């Protein structure tokens, strides 16, 4: 049973009474994340201004955040009282959402790199290519999430069980943490190069009004993406570092701060819609339109 592996690994089964405040926070954040990311997906669907590759990728990021919120809710309500197969499905969904978010951010980084270096606002990529890209992102993410259930686990080698996820092999945690940390580092380098290029290009551009408007639009969109990446780095890096420490059997303060890394990771799913609201005027207007429509329908007798 799942409880057996929890006992083998030495992981303490969560006691909701002891972590009531943290669990309540996760519940609030998860519900808010699900609602706001549904709002983002609806906005991108109904507003033709968002029917471009960059917004489709942002919508895919919202979908990953939406599924992350659902997975965390299931984890809170059913921490270990599930079958082995259900446990692997739940953990696999969380891993797949993490991988989808990181891969999606990499795709956004490469899309922005291509458009910025040609001083375009939107990519010339066709809708079919965007769809294939999104399908590819989820195919890779789901496959990586299923790897433990396909054999890379410690069901037959209990001495190699991790503490944070007792049925996962420590070596898988090392692989997952290193891969995602390298991916995040790569994105930081790409955006640093873009930032240096945009700053240098802006200084050399003439003062023509049309050019200034185009430059301002490009830079605003870039700033939004920068903030999204920054939130991802801040929210996910502590959890990935904990995975790495667990993988190399460093138990220092891991158990004490694990629950807080979960809260921080889930906060990332909630922050992205807030960033869109604050940074993108078109997105903000669309959000208001959707909310007003919902209010009007709610008032009808």
UniProtKB/TrEMBL annotation:
One Pfam entry name: 7tm_1
Bilayer-spanning residue ranges: 20-46, 58-82, 88-110, 130-152, 172-196, 225-245, 257-278
UniProt membrane topology term: Multi-pass membrane protein
Domain G-protein coupled receptors family 1 profile: 36-276
GO cellular component: cell surface; endosome; plasma membrane
Cellular compartments annotated: Cell membrane; Cell surface; Endosome
PROSITE patterns for the chain: G_PROTEIN_RECEP_F1_1, G_PROTEIN_RECEP_F1_2
Keyword Magnesium: no
Keywords of the record: Cell membrane, Disulfide bond, Endosome, G-protein coupled receptor, Glycoprotein, Membrane, Receptor, Transducer, Transmembrane, Transmembrane helix
Gene3D superfamilies with a match to the protein in the record: Rhodopsin 7-helix transmembrane proteins
InterPro entries tied to this protein: GPCR_Rhodpsn, GPCR_Rhodpsn_7TM, LPA_rcpt, LPA_rcpt_EDG2
Any one Gene Ontology molecular-function term assigned to this protein's record: lysophosphatidic acid receptor activity
Family note: Belongs to the G-protein coupled receptor 1 family.
Protein name per Swiss-Prot or TrEMBL: Lysophosphatidic acid receptor 2b
């Amino acid at each position: 049973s799942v409880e057996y592996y929890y006992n083998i690994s030495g992981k303490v089964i969560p006691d909701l009474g002891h972590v009531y405040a943290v669990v309540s926070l996760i519940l609030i954040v998860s519900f808010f994340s699900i609602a706001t990311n549904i709002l983002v997906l609806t906005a991108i669907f109904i507003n033709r201004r968002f029917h471009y590759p960059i917004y489709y990728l942002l919508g895919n990021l919202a979908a990953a955040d939406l599924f992350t919120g659902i997975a965390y809710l299931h984890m809170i309500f059913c921490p270990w009282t599930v079958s082995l197969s259900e446990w692997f499905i739940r953990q696999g969904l969380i891993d797949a959402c993490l991988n989808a978010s990181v891969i999606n951010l990499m795709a956004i980084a490469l899309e922005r790199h291509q458009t910025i270096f040609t001083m375009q606002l939107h990519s010339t990529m066709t809708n079919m290519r965007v769809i294939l890209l999104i399908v590819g992102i989820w195919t890779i993410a789901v496959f990586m999430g299923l790897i433990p259930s396909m054999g890379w686990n410690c069901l037959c080698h209990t001495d190699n069980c991790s503490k944070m996820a007792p049925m996962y092999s420590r070596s898988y945690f090392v692989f997952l943490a290193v891969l995602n940390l390298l991916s995040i580092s790569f994105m930081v380098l790409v955006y640093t190069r873009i930032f240096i290029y945009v700053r240098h290009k802006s200084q050399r551009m003439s003062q023509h009004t049309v050019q200034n408007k185009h430059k301002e639009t490009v830079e605003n969109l870039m700033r939004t993406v920068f903030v999204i990446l920054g939130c991802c780095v801040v929210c996910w890096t502590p959890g990935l570092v904990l995975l790495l420490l667990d993988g190399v059997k460093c138990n220092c303060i891991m158990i004490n701060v694990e629950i807080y890394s979960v809260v921080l990771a889930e906060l990332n799913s909630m922050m992205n819609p807030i960033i869109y609201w604050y940074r993108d005027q078109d997105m903000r207007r669309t959000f208001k339109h959707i909310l007003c429509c919902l209010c009007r329908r709610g008032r009808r007798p």
